[in-house]
């Protein structure tokens, strides 16, 4: 059993790279797509790491690589000190029991023809030794944990609202008693009226069961409300990592400052509002040389066009990949 021993980070990734090589066609050339470029981060036990960035920056690819739904081109992943990339099929099944994913669209995550109780029970059948009465009892308990009545088990997904379907997906994720949830845009497909309810549910479940969470979102408000630390991604690179309070109060990277400028109540260090982010990021198949952000950066320097900055430590463990801070102490 891959139970966490709490020696160091619960999950740690270093140098994760993923390059896709699509087939050439008459409509596009078959050049490589650089989805992840040396990504590194860690998630501690019972903490929430928010992962934020524009659409297409590699957030979802990163989640799929962590679970080995997609194999990385290079890099390492450790869960509680164990090499995830070296796991055989049996070890990988156990790992996926301890690390569960909540997808963006609950309707697409559920089989529309199968009763939801059976869908939750499937996870118990794969990952536990419970007999049938034990599994059905556990299904009722899990539905209760997410605020649904026991009779929900006998109904099919279309009989529920979007928020209720996401509660069912969360119940299924809890069935394996995970230590880490990967929540990929868990409320973006829901009505505004129920987003807060689902976020509060996730927070309550984290506290009750001591869960860690990798929260993937483009919504800065969600990330700010939910996260202990935040990592900012741009074009497959992590460009800044900090405690949530520090990042929102004093963003360092020009990209982070521009992202936060889209929230009127958030200003940069010294009170001056950063300019809003302009233009569109280049495609992952057309990565610029040097710093990936330099074509859109208001503070670009000559070296940014040819050299790629690495994450360096600033005050209070704040990490930033930007030449503006090189040599500071």
Main sheet: strands, sense, barrel? 8 strands, mixed
Give the CATH architecture of the largest domain: 3-Layer(aba) Sandwich
- Order of helix and strand elements from N to C terminus: EEEHEEHEHHHHEHEHEEHHEE
Morphology: globular
Describe what this molecule looks like in 3D.
With 329 residues, this protein is of the alpha/beta class. The strands form two sheets. The protein has an eight-stranded mixed beta sheet, sandwiched between helices. It is globular and about 65 Å long. It has two domains: 35-223, Rossmann fold, CATH 3.40.50; 228-276 and 286-329, no CATH class. Helix 7 (192-209) links the parallel strand 7 and strand 8. It contains ten helices and twelve strands. The termini are far apart.
Brief description of this entry?
This protein is α/β, with parallel strands linked by helices. It has helices at 59-66, 89-98, 106-109, 116-127, 132-145, 162-174, 192-209, 220-226, 244-249, 254-260, and strands spanning 11-20, 33-43, 48-52, 74-79, 82-83, 99-102, 180-184, 212-217, 229-234, 237-243, 312-313, 319-320.
């Amino acid at each position: 059993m891959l139970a966490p021993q709490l020696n160091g980070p619960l999950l740690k990734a270093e140098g994760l790279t993923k390059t896709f090589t699509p087939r050439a066609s008459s409509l596009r050339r078959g050049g490589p797509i650089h989805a992840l470029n040396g990504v590194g981060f860690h998630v501690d036990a019972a903490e929430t790491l928010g992962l934020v960035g524009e659409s297409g920056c590699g957030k979802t690819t990163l989640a799929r690589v962590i679970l080995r739904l997609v194999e990385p081109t290079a890099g390492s992943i450790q869960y509680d000190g164990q090499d995830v990339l070296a796991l055989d099929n049996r070890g990988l099944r156990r790992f996926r029991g301890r690390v569960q994913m909540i997808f963006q669209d609950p309707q697409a995550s559920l089989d529309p023809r199968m009763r939801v109780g059976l869908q939750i029970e499937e996870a118990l059948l794969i990952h536990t030794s419970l007999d049938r009465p034990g599994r059905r009892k556990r299904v009722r308990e899990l539905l209760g944990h997410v605020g649904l009545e026991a009779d929900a088990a006998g109904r099919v997904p279309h009989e529920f609202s979007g928020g209720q379907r996401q509660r069912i997906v969360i119940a299924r994720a809890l069935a394996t008693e995970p230590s880490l949830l990967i929540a990929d845009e868990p409320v973006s497909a829901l009505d505004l009226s129920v987003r807060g309810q689902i976020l509060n549910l996730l927070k309550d479940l984290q506290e009750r069961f001591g869960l860690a969470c990798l929260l993937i979102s483009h919504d800065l408000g969600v990330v700010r409300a939910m996260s202990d630390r935040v990592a900012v991604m741009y074009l497959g690179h992590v460009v800044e990592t900090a405690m949530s309070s520090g990042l929102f109060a004093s963003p360092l990277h020009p990209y982070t400052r521009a992202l936060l400028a889209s929230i009127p109540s958030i200003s940069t260090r010294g009170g001056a509002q950063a300019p809003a982010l302009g233009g569109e990021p280049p495609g992952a198949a057309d990565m610029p040389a040097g710093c990936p952000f330099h074509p859109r950066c208001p503070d670009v320097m000559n070296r940014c066009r040819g050299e790629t900055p690495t994450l360096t430590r600033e005050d209070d463990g704040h990490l930033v990949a930007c030449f503006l801070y090189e040599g500071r102490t």
